[in-house]
Design a protein that fits this description.
By secondary structure, this protein is mostly beta strands. It has no helices and 18 strands. The protein has a twelve-stranded parallel β-sheet with strand order 1-2-3-5-7-8-9-11-13-15-17-18, with no helix packed on it. Strands 10-12-14-16 form a four-stranded parallel β-sheet, with no helix packed on it.
Amino acid sequence: QNTYAYPTTIAIGQNALVNASGRAPFGAIGIGRNTLGGAYNNVAQIAIGRSAFALSSGIALGVALGDHAGSGSFSRWTTGYAYSPVILGSHAMANNYIGYAKGVVAIGSFAGQRDVGTSLAANWDTSDGGVYVGYGAARYCHGRGSVAIGNDASAGYSSIHSVNVDNVVIGGSAGTAASHYASVAIGSLAMYRTSGVNNSTYGDGTACSYDPAPSRCYTQYATAIGYGAGAYAYDQDSSIMIGRQAGLQSKGHGAKR
């Protein structure tokens, strides 16, 4: 039974809202070719741009502006909606799991985007509360509750994803292809490809691995400020690295490389 009072639907453009089903048409505004096409069980969406929010599901009160913005994005709608995402930019948040509690903000082409069918580890498979600003910010990224500002900040690659949980990352390529938790990286290339062993969880010192998610391998509570600070560092839990290339390629207790 529909409990939402959003009866008005506006569809402008070739195939706008075509094959949208469930609650997806309720209160929807789709402007552009194939906007919200094939969407399922969304509520009160605003989608502007070719294929914006197309094939998305379980998202409520969201805004997507841009070519393929939010296309293929989804939540676990059977247990809860992803509320109030704001997605601006070509392919921003495309094919990503948005979560089902707090809104995510993604601004910039390919911000928060990942490939169709990419396997994500359950612990990182959400973008709840994330703020991603910049071209490719948090692309191919597992994470939640984090801030990533700058081109490719906290971004990964299709073969090596980054882990970005409860972090603040500011700077071009800061935290790229890195694995860290509750950390701060400020500066271009700060904490670039940083990883480690979380000894509190993996007390046996298990070596870092990517499969492609670095779910067994991350640095936590670290601070890196400055160009290249903490880049290529391993197992630098609770470390403070301030200055140009401070802590570059450094290894902490339990590091295997």
